């Protein structure tokens, strides 16, 4: 019956409506689902099996017109045609992180058990905000949070939540630190906010500055602390800045230490930093987005000594646990602080649910609707195990040490500090030193245009450098040596043409 008491019309069993419904995933379309996903998986597998370089070298100017020509108001209807089109607008020119000569950013090749998890979680489509949308998914995420907190050593009152990535995890941590700092001082909030400051290493992640802006702190709220020649936070400088901020009438709401800086892979002296924070009564956040792989390392776990004293910790499983994006988490020592992110909505998570001990993850999260990304890590641990993940992470750390030695012995290059993780910062150094910056910028662009390899770039003490980020156990020292030869060839050609006052063009060597 309908709302007016009249007989309801039967759902159509044929015609246009049924054709449209055939695209929805339900018990009547499982065969179509199986077939279509098998076709898509086969296409991706074929691509991966036949990729001979990490990138095609396509430019935005060349690819954008192809994407712009697609008329999104006129569907192709045929899945095969849509996949053919996808080849030209995406797969053909995708950046392949699994390729051993992709050496640019913190993107890892992914574990197959995690891809299995991705397929399951996308199809079931659980939302991890409330128990009545996820059930077992809620408990799996909570179990993984407990497992990670135990690996860190945060203690029995620890808790946390999965996030979209390190930037969100750091923002969440700074929100909690801000609220704790404000609650600890019996003064009006509007008086305290302009006085709050965050201390972090000059080699720390930019998301700390971004978080301060999003949280409404003053423009100069983030105070950078000097680093030593190894690009680790100087504890003497940290102590000085804590004292200076207090003399200036500022309130230090948090110190952010880094366990794996993005450029240098270095780890701040966590025990000493933790002691300074304890003595000053300051919140300690450790950004271990990159270095969290050490939690499962069979040989290097000691590098994280001191992290167990943090008030909050960021971990990015999609950096060093070989997980697909996204898979990150924020962990806290005291679960009670997560209340600062809690808001009870009557339609979703009313207060009575908390009183009934119904586990709603939205009570801890900055997000509401949230994917079941924890499932990828769960299946990876259940199929591979943590020791296997740690062994793979150790392989890339060993490879980075070999790459550093290779560069240190090569007169064509100069190399910066030796990483504690898997980055290597270096640059081509021509006899004409004044051309070094432009030569390295040119070499990186020319290498990318060739598609033969990808390396990253950064600035060190105002100069342009290149960077290898090694996260692929399939990469070899021979791969690295070959890429260095390509870099040197491009840079050398730039120097020669510049010296001869002839415009340089990218050379497609290798």
Automatic annotation (TrEMBL):
SUPFAM superfamilies hit by this protein: PLP-dependent transferases
Keyword Acetylation listed: no
Top-rank taxon, per record: Bacteria
Positions where N6-(pyridoxal phosphate)lysine occurs in the chain: 319
GO MF term list: aromatic-L-amino-acid decarboxylase activity; pyridoxal phosphate binding
GO biological process: amino acid metabolic process; carboxylic acid metabolic process
Pfam family membership, one: Pyridoxal_deC
UniProt KW keywords: Decarboxylase, Lyase, Pyridoxal phosphate
GO cellular component term of the entry, any: cytoplasm
Swiss-Prot/TrEMBL cofactor(s): pyridoxal 5'-phosphate
Record-linked PANTHER family: CYSTEINE SULFINIC ACID DECARBOXYLASE (PTHR45677:SF8), GLUTAMATE DECARBOXYLASE-RELATED (PTHR45677)
Family recorded in the similarity comment: Belongs to the group II decarboxylase family.
The name this protein goes by in its record: L-2,4-diaminobutyrate decarboxylase
Organism the protein comes from: Micromonospora eburnea
């Amino acid at each position: 019956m309908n709302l007016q008491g009249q007989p309801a019309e039967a759902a159509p069993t044929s015609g246009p409506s049924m054709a449209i419904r055939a695209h929805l995933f339900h018990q009547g379309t499982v065969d179509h689902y199986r077939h279509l996903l098998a076709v898509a998986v086969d296409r991706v597998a074929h691509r991966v099996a036949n990729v001979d370089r990490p990138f095609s070298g396509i430019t935005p100017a060349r690819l954008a017109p192809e994407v712009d020509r697609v008329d999104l108001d006129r569907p192709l209807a045929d899945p095969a045609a849509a996949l053919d089109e996808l080849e030209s607008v995406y797969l053909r020119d995708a950046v392949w992180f699994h390729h051993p000569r992709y050496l640019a950013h913190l993107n890892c090749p992914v574990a197959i058990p995690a891809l299995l998890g991705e397929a399951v979680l996308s199809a079931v489509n659980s939302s991890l905000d409330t128990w009545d949308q996820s059930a077992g998914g809620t408990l799996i995420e909570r179990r993984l949070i407990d497992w990670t907190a135990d690996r860190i050593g945060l203690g029995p009152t620890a808790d946390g939540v999965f996030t979209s990535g390190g930037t969100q995890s750091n923002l969440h941590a700074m929100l909690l630190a801000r609220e704790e700092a404000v609650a600890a001082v019996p003064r009006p909030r509007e008086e305290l906010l302009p006085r709050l400051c965050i201390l972090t290493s000059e080699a720390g992640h930019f998301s700390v500055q971004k978080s301060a802006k999003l949280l409404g702190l003053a423009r100069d709220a983030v105070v950078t602390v000097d680093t030593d020649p190894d690009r680790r936070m100087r504890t003497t400088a940290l102590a000085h800045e804590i004292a200076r901020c207090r003399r200036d009438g500022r309130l230090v709401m948090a110190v952010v230490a880094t366990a794996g800086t993005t450029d240098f892979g270095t780890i701040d002296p966590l025990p000493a930093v933790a002691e300074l924070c304890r003595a000053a009564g300051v919140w300690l956040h450790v950004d271990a987005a990159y270095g969290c792989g050490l939690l499962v390392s069979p040989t290097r776990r000691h590098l994280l000594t001191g992290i167990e004293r943090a008030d909050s910790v960021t971990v990015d499983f999609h950096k060093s646990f070989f997980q697909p994006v996204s898979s990150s988490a924020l962990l806290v020592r005291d679960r009670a602080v997560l209340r600062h992110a809690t808001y009870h909505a009557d339609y979703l998570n009313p207060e009575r649910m908390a009183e009934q001990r119904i586990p709603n993850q939205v009570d801890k999260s900055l997000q509401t609707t949230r994917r079941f990304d924890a499932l990828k890590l769960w299946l990876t641990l259940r199929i591979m195990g943590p020791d296997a993940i740690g062994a793979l992470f150790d392989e890339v750390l060993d490879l980075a040490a070999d790459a550093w030695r290779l560069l240190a012995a090569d007169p064509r290059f100069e190399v910066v500090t030796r990483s504690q993780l898997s980055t290597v910062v270096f640059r081509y150094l021509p006899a004409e030193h004044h051309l070094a910056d432009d030569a390295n910028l040119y070499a990186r662009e020319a290498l990318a245009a060739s598609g033969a390899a990808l390396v990253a770039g950064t600035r060190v003490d105002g100069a342009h450098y290149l960077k290898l980020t090694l996260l692929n156990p399939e990469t070899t020292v021979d791969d690295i040596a070959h890429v260095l030869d390509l870099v040197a060839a491009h840079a050398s050609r730039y120097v020669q043409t510049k010296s001869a006052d002839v415009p340089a063009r990218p050379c497609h060597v290798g």
